Amino acid sequence: MDLIQAILYGIVQGITEWLPISSTAHLRVLPALAGWQDPGAGFTAVIQLGTLLAVLIYFRTELWGAIKGWVGSFRGGEAAKTPEARLGWAVFVGTFPIVICGVLFEDQIKGGLRSLWVIATMLIVVGVFMIVAERLGKQTRELKDVSWRDGLWVGLWQAVALIPGSSRSGSTMTGAFIAGFDKSTAARFSFLLSVPSIFAAGIKELYDERAAILGAQLLPTIVATLVSFFVGYASIAWLIGYLRKGSTLGFVIYRFLLAGLLIFLMQTGRLDPMVGIETPSKTDVSTTTR
User: Which listed residue, of 111, 123, 161, 173, carries a Cα 20 to 30 Å from 129's Cα?
Assistant: First the structure.
């Protein structure tokens, strides 16, 4: 990977991580269309640390309040009933589904589920759920109304984002819409809920892929992560402002158009759905299964 590719990956990651259009899909589609090697789920998880830093800075007040509230809740009494404490518990409980599913289905997430057919399908499926949930949701609840049950519910939707093409923000916002939260709150809750899982995934992949990332890929990874931070911060600020009055319909239409393009290219033989993905040889498989 050269620095131009790293910058492009960082820009794509920064824009698409927080917009409900799937960063994983775009980081798969970009090299597929450009004829580059797929950067892999590990690289994707590591550069997400840049967009995670953007969330930590942008939502520093809410995050610090949730942490203090969560710690204070162990004293019991009224301290456990504050909005900050309930938000802290919602994030804590909501992180379990994606962690459990990520561990159980790690091989599939890094392998067959990165097929462009899967991505195209999930772009459509989650897009449909998202627009229906927005239209039917009551949108009367705010962040102060969050409970641990909301955390578990939206956390289950966050686990869906492990399937490439779903979009973490798209799936979690869908769950929040169904739970009755307004659009701006759904986005905020989505971003706050993502912090523990993105951090854990990024650190894990940084450790697992340390030989490559700390070797020849060190500079491209650093560049992509830094670019994703700056672009991601701007993306968050824009989306929060947009959702105060705007709809997710535009994002849904974009998802459908991207899925349609992928399906057309694959159906006409112009694009291999597994392009760029390294598949283990028979020797590798037999070795790993012993």
Answer: 111
What lies within 8 Å, CB to CB, of 48 at 6+ separation is 13, 17, 23, 198, 201, 202, 228
CB under 8 Å to 90, separation ≥6 — which residues? 146, 147, 148, 150, 151, 154, 189, 193
Contact between 249 and 21 (Cβ < 8 Å) = no
* Closest C-alpha among 197, 214, 234, 209 to residue 49: 197
CA distance 230 to 237: 11
* CB-CB contact of 10 with 231 (8 Å): yes
User: Cα–Cα distance between 127 and 125 in angstroms, integer?
Assistant: 5
- The pLDDT tens digits of the residues spanning 132-166 come to 999 999 999 999 999 999 999 999 999 999 999 99
> Smallest Cα–Cα separation from 135: which of 247, 246, 245?
247
Distance between CA 173 and CA 53 in Å, rounded? 20
**Amino acid of residue 160:** V
**Where in the chain are the domains?**
3-276
Which pTM was predicted?
Answer: 0.86
Separation of alpha carbons 259 and 190, rounded Å? 23
